[in-house]
Each structure stands twice: as structure tokens, then as C-alpha cells.
Amino acid sequence: MTDLSQIVKAYDVRGVVPDQWDEALAGLFGAAFAEVTGADAIVIGHDMRPSSPGLAGAFARGAAARGVDVTEIGLCSTDELYYASGALGLPGAMFTASHNPARYNGIKMCRAGAAPVGQDTGLADIRALVERWSEEGAPEPAATPGTIGRRDVLADYAAHLRSLVDLSGSRPLKVVVDAGNGMGGHTVPTVFAGLPLELDALYFELDGSFPNHEANPLDPKNIVDLQARVREVGADLGLAFDGDADRCFVVDEKGDPVSPSAITALVAARELAKHPGGTVIHNLITSWSVPEVVAELGGEAVRTRVGHSFIKEEMAQAGAIFGGEHSAHYYFRDFWNADTGMLAALHVLAALGGQQGTLSELVAQYDRYASSGEINSTVDDQAGRLAAIRAAHAGRPGVTLDELDGLTVTTADWWFNVRASNTEPLLRLNVEARDAATVERVRDEALAIIRG
Fold first, then answer.
1. Fewest CB atoms within 10 Å of the CB: 237, 275, 336, 418?
2. What are the catalytic residues?
């Protein structure tokens, strides 16, 4: 029997195919998803990985055997699946392993209206059922099986996004997009069609073996081609999407990366212009710039843990208009509180096209501090290292500690956060300060304790 603890993560299912899971197990996940959601109908989509169509089909058959009607939307981005879940009012399942290597695959699940299914919101129950059925055999099929039908929602998804951001008054922009052979190659041409954009497409061929580079734009080595192309053709900006195209990373006209925190602040400013006094969610490793900009514009900033299920939950509770994470996930009330890198990209294009300056000039007002980026360290004793950091800083004048997510140490001039990975023996360090020299000093002091 497969050890499901290895593939059922905090927010999704993910593992190596067929070593850790296969179509037989996908069928059980489909049956369990139908049972736990109690739905009469669901929607399913998948990315371009070679194993995705078979896994998605098995999941569909498993759900249909429980009497659930299934709408398959075929190839799509994760945010396109969220669109279908929201627009159709159906629970959804997306087959993708995002930026993981080709032999991986996974399932991101949501309830109707794109509400997240995580460990505490149904995923643990789904896992328990799959484990039971793996041992005892699949459940008896329903007296009347559900139907399995097809529907294409790409044009409707694109139209919905374009209805939320007006680029009609934008000056023409030249934009390079690196789809990384992922689902951005499927969605970008339709979303950008008819907009005042000259598109320079990199790696738009759908290929789940990722022949050009990993589809993870947060790793600097994966945006080198995009940076070079932006400089070569004199583009106004570059956009890079991850494998399932729910995250978007931005580089400016010089090819320099734009901090996702600066993008969060920029989009927050645009959303607050539409919804004065609104609430904006940000996770605790986004820059100080984000709550500062929100406060300056009369909004309310709410700090939360890292992770999409926490952000979405807080978005719903607070009635927030927008949320951003430093991992380049962006969440919108107008998109069922779900994350969509494509909508964030449209906001950046509209903001840049609505004035005459460069992107680097535009984002300078939102990028106010120096930062380290995320630094991962392999450690045997995560709790012990965190305790050592706490002991080193507790009681120091002008230092505050909080444990909303890992440990955050804050002074008037700098802060750092250390969090344990949910899935690997890692501690993740993020440092921000008023200048680069202070970042280096604080980073080195923290790493000396973390790495012993």
C-alpha cells in the first residue's frame, strides 16, 4: 500500500508517478473527493504533464462511480480551474505538480467557489477514506453513476480577467513572456488577444519534460533567458509563469527582477483606488513596504501566515479586496479569493501602460528596503535551532518576537523570520532591513545559529 503521508501535503497531493501514486489511486481520490464534498457535480482540469490526462480521467471515473456528474475542462492553468469552480459553482480538482520536475504530479482541490481544500478543510478526510479503501477495496458504486462531459472555459476565463482590468487606454507595450513550457503557453495567447501588447513568446510549447528550464521563476537561474530577451529586444517588461501558471514573476525593462512584495504593493494600490478603505492581506515575509503603502492609501493591512489556505481563509473572513505573498501568489476578491498570476500581470501592464515612465521607475516607490531573499538551510533539529534563535534574542532592548509562523524577530531597523519547512528538514530564513549592509550582518548572525 502507498504511504499517503509521503504524498498528501498540507495543501495538496503531490508525488512521483507511478512510484508513489498512479491512476488506480487517482480513482480512489476521485471517489473520496466526491464523498467528502457531498457534491452532485464537480469540475476537473489538468496541466501538460504526460501523466496528467490519465490521472485526471481516473479521478473523473472514480467520482462518477459515486454518482457525481463530472465536467472535464481539459488542458488549463490552475487559476483557470479556479475560474471554472467559481463561475460554475462546483468543487474542482486540478492535476498539476506546479514547478516540480516532470516525473511528479499532484492534485489541487477546492470546494465550490474555489474555496480551498487543505489539511483542516477536507484533505485529511479525503486521505483517510483513500487509505481505508486501499486496504478494504473500493466502495460500492452508486446505483446511478454520474456522467462525464467536456467543456472549454478558456475564452470565458480570459473574458472575465479582461473585465476586471481596463487596458483600453494603455499605451502599446512590448512584453516578453516566458511560459517555461507550462500552462502559460496555453492561456497567455487568449488572455492577451486584442490588448495593446506586442507579445514576444518564450517557451510556449506545452512540454511537461521542461526541456528549457524548470518552470519555477522564483529560482534566479530560471529567468536568465527572460532577462536576456527583455534586454535584447528592448521590451518594456518581462513576465514569467510557473508550470501551472498560477504564479507570475516580473522583470523590468533592464531585465532586473521586481520583488513580488513590490508587485503586491502596486496591485494593492490599484485595488484600493477601486475600493477605498479596503482590507489587504499579506503574509509575514512580505516587505514592510506592503503594509506601509496600504496604510498610506487609507486601507487596512492584515498580516497572516505563509500558505494559500491561510491567505484564502483570511481573505474570506476579513472581506479583503486583495492578498499577496512573497512567493508571487496574488489573491483577488473579484476572483473568488483565489490566486491568479494572470490577473496580477494584467494589473502591472495596466499600471505601466497608463503612464509614460519605465517599470523600474514605477515600482521604485513600492520597493523601499533591502532584503536577503529566502535562504534555505538543511538542519537535523528544526525545533532546537528555532529555540536557540529565540534564546539569542529574547529580552534584548528594542527587540520583539512573535511566533505567528515560525519565529519573527523585529527591531526598528530590521526584521527576520525563520520557518520550518512542512515537507523537508529545512529552515527558511528571510531578512529585511533599511540597507544592504544591515541585511548582510543580520543574515550572517542568524545563519551562524541556524547552521550551528
1. 275
2. 98
